Amino acid sequence: MCPKKSYCGQEKIFYNFEKADDYSINVSRSRMHTHLSRNDLDYIDQIIYEGVVSNGQSLHHIYVGSKLLQSMCSERTIRRIIYRGELKTKAHMLRRYVVYKHEYIKPKEIYCKKDVRAYVNRTYSDYIDYIEHNKSKNIMQFDSVIGKINDKKSILTKTFKKYGFQFGILIEKGDPRSVDNAIRNIKKKIGDELFYKIFAINIADNGSEFTTFYNIEYDCDGLIKCKSFFTRPYNSSDKAECESDRRLVRYFCPKGKSLNDITQEQIDKMYSNINSYVRESQNNQCPYDLIKNKFGKKFLDLINIKRIPNKKVKLKPIIQPKKKHKKDSIIMSK
């Protein structure tokens, strides 16, 4: 600082850092709106709104299936203008927009299986050791989807670990005999040779419906043809792919909604949409095409899974609340 500043009569020039920072403000303002024309925005909005709201698709799925969108701008640009509120499609309409709560730590409970012999050579550590020496074999992850606690029905799901493909069968909830029958029916449909190729390595959790899950290993002559294993209690990461893909099932069957009235035809239609859904993790391919290339279309036809065109894929609930009849409302009012 100059000591003569207060009485010096010479012309002075002072540096104002606030004015000098106008550049960064102008740059920020210039990026607060898109440079696309209004016509382009309307066209983008029409495609995105139909896919997100009408069909329940994700933004990534819509973008990959539209060459015109790809030629106009990037997927990130579309997401940015949605967040800025420039389109009719709002941010909260997008899939998985809501921030999920942190998982809580479940209390450790002592779990006792009726027949502990089922665990011999079938623990999770045995599973890790086995797949380490059999990397080329296909891995299937089993789980069950439930609606309400007091439901009589549930869905037995089977997930291809590598391909993200899954399909399901309607079973009696918590009944191991129903699971065994479902597996036998699949074997009968596709034949022993293809069955043991697809179901080479199998893993399930410790639910009551999987009490006799190890029966999958044996053929009609009692010979071991494949392997089965059990996960550790309260460790969903042991079959992470199955747990991750189940979120797509919840788009159709929300938690707390009863599955007692669901049909196998509805389940097949649900999984046809799920398996036609483009996955970024699978290099922008859908599981249906991956399984078709690996095991053939005949297998997919035998389990009643169809290919849905990208623009017609719908991830919307199949369980709708029952409408009250006028007579019922009149009776209630009385």
- What is the domain tally? 2
Distance between the termini: 89 Å
Largest sheet: 5 strands, mixed
Radius of gyration: 28 Å
Range of helix content: 25-40%
**Sequence stretches where pLDDT stays below 50 over 5 or more residues:** 104-113, 326-334
Describe the structure in brief.
The protein has 334 residues and is of the alpha/beta class. It is 39% helix and 9% strand.
Question: How would you describe this protein?
Answer:
- This protein has 334 residues and is an alpha/beta fold.
- The protein has 2 domains: 23-93, no CATH class; 116-312, Nucleotidyltransferase, domain 5, CATH 3.30.420.10.
- It is 39% helix and 9% strand.
- It is built from 14 helices and 5 strands.
What topology emerges from the helices and strands here?
Blueprint: H1 17-20, H2 22-30, H3 38-54, H4 59-64, H5 67-72, H6 75-83, H7 124-133, E1 139-145, E2 153-160, E3 166-172, H8 176-190, H9 192-198, E4 201-204, E5 227-230, H10 240-252, H11 264-275, H12 287-295, H13 297-302, H14 326-333
Parallel strand pairs: 1-4, 4-5
Antiparallel strand pairs: 1-2, 2-3
Helix pairs in contact: 8-9
List keywords for this structure.
334 residues, alpha/beta, single chain, Nucleotidyltransferase, domain 5, 5-stranded mixed β-sheet, 39% helix, 2 domains, 5 strands, 14 helices
